[in-house]
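INFO  loader      accepted 1 record
INFO  loader      residues=221
INFO  predictor   begin
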Amino acid sequence: MFVCMRLLTRLALSLALLGGAAVATDLLPTASATSLALLTLDQMTDASDLVVRGTVVETWSGVDDTGQIVSYANVRVGEALKGGVVAGDFVTVETLGGEVDGVVARVDGSARYSKEEEVFLFLSEKRLGTAYGTVGMFLGKFTVKPNPRDGRDMVVRFTVPWGQAYDARFVPNPPADQRLGLEDLRSTVRARVAAGWDGKAIPGVSPQKLRQINKLQPGVR
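INFO  predictor   done
INFO  writer      dumping tokens
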């Protein structure tokens, strides 16, 4: 049984903006009234309370206190690039949709996780100190996997709708000339954290929060 919570009219995905990430657009059907705001990596870094690399140790679904089906991934932090966590900490990541007792709540564009998946996450705090969500739904979640060309780690964006199986071992590779290396992503995030927020608006994030969670660039008030 499917429960459709259709959130997105379209995913206007730019491979240049996504760093050449593989995205299963054919598996993301059209939905209703809103669309994802595409953000640069600098904007995603600014909008995040935490930016971490880690490993998924557990996943599960349940019903929250509003009656919605939601899913969770417990992530062991291997490296923290922004925010108040350190290697060895655990972070719970929450996403809309999932399956409970045979009922599937399908939310197009939600991030999917599988056990033992290595991930690079841009996270925004949902409930103080207890749960986080990815910035921009699945756009804030990267799977880390080896580049078949040289064996070095790269990062890939990919999702499928609830109701279809997800296994990170089978995340497809983007075209060879559109792959984003993990080290390149790490360097971009570290440089932005060090530089700070530039004072420009970011959709869905208040200026007050951006000031609270970021260093400010010179001249930003």
